[in-house]
Amino acid sequence: MGEVHTSSGFIEPLPSSSGILFDGLGKIKIKKGQLDIINYINISYIGPHLYNLNGVFTTLEEICKRANYQPCENTLSSLLVRFEDIKSEFNSISHLISNRNKRSAWFGAIGIAFRHIFGTLDEDDAIKYDQAIESVQKDEKTLAKLIKENILVTTNTLNSFKETIKQLELNEEKLNKNIYQFFSKYENVTNKLIINSSINSIISNLESSLLTMSFQVQDLINDILFASQNVFHPNILSPSQLYKELVNNIRHLPEDTHIPVPLDLSNIHLILSISSVACYYYNHKLVFILQIPLVTRETYVLYKTLAIPIPHNMNDPNSFSFILPNNPYIAISNDKNDYCIFDNLRKCSLVNSELYICETRAILSTSGNPTCETELLKNPHSSLPQQCITKTHIGPLDAWEPLTNNRWVFIQSHRNKISIDCGANGLSETTVFGTGILRIPKHCTVFTRTMKIKAYKNFKVNITTPILDFTLTNDSCCNMIPEIKSELSSDYKTPKVIDLNKLKLNSESEMKELDNLINKEPFIVKFQTHYTVSVIIIFMIFIIVLAYKLVYCIKLKKNVKLHKTTESEDVEMNVSPAPLRHLS
Questions:
Q1: Three-state DSSP class for residue 28
Q2: What is the pLDDT of residues 273-284, one digit of tens each?
Q3: Cα 147 to the center of its chain, rounded Å
Q4: pTM of the predicted protein model
Q5: What is the dihedral of CA 82, 87, 93, 99, to 10 degrees?
């Protein structure tokens, strides 16, 4: 085993002793709508073309028999197998995009019907997009008008579709021409080599048509399957084609919105990664929509808020005070005038290591709707803002919480030794105590008393942690340390492992769990100088019992007095003189 070094270079102090920490996660842009890039494939030509090819096979079978040309029959047999595969693959598309109870009718009368495949679309969207496609087909000048409505029909799709149709029509024309020439000359041709050559030419054209059709059907299947995984297949629109479409049309977007990243060919992969894909079938068209999020011009800084227990006594950290955050995440504008809050980041997309795109219901004003967090971030304070809620905690703690840039905040009531294994760079040891931040070097692993921590990211977030100007334990809210018994139980002396994320007000379940934790010894929590609910309840019960006893005693005295009065009357009646008798 290598030499073990003792070092404290991995430990850094907290940026402030305010009882709350703002960990910078990056910058965010607020989503405001989306740009729908429409790409479509008209598949109405496939059914008729397959029908025509089926007739060609019937005609060729007759030709091969009439010419008694055995290689023709052999080649035709293998091509027929391929033709059946193409029909089967094309029929499988109907299983991917139509309702189960109407698959058989998919190629027939309901070709105009709407069929939702993937993504967040409805029939009204399909009709709107179909009208956009029709208008662009008639006049490409309508593109500028459509993009103001955040709709972009790609001209590349139109050109690609035209080329495909042209190729299939050309193959079919050659095939029909060769068949016609064969039948018109067959009666007058006696040279068998010429006949066989004509047959081979027809077979070659048929093979070319089958190959083109096979590629088309395979591309359709791949496009649909990729769309189901929210991936825009390059066959629909390549990255370079997407870049060209955006460059040519981006100037027509509304002025208050823009694409989240700079429009450059090197950023197209980022645009694709944050976009959604929708797919539907309508009016004989398979329509693929790339939904690129649009964002506002304002940039916000995103922070994760953490309650950080600050010890009252640095040498004996067994009582703490901290600020309760209102929300787990807050984003504030660069000028500190606006902000938005988040319970989680599920409605945010990570563009790169420092940029998020988030949806929010409301953007609030820091002056009109101030909170504890906005007051701390916007204004300098020498004391606790009145919007802040604090708690005081009595008892030893053991807490570790990850921050950005491979940092961990720790709260340790007892001195604990940790090991830092950096592989070839050696093994180091250090001691953690009180409250601070542990910085883990790249490719290193930290072993604590309760867990193993690995460096998990290589990129760095360049957001400075705000430094707050006051110490919570010196404030009037938290400088009165409750009396602590000198004789503590063994359970009380054992540090309790807690999760700093549970110290929130944003969730009923979290608060209920926290209250359950608080009500257990050794945790005694007081809300500033207010009486606890339990004391009030006990006092009320005592008053009720006392009142009941008092009423009972009064009634009892009245009953005793009444009873004595009744007995006195009875005695008087019993001792009254008897009536006198007259002597005769």
A1: strand
A2: 999 988 888 777
A3: 28
A4: 0.68
A5: -150
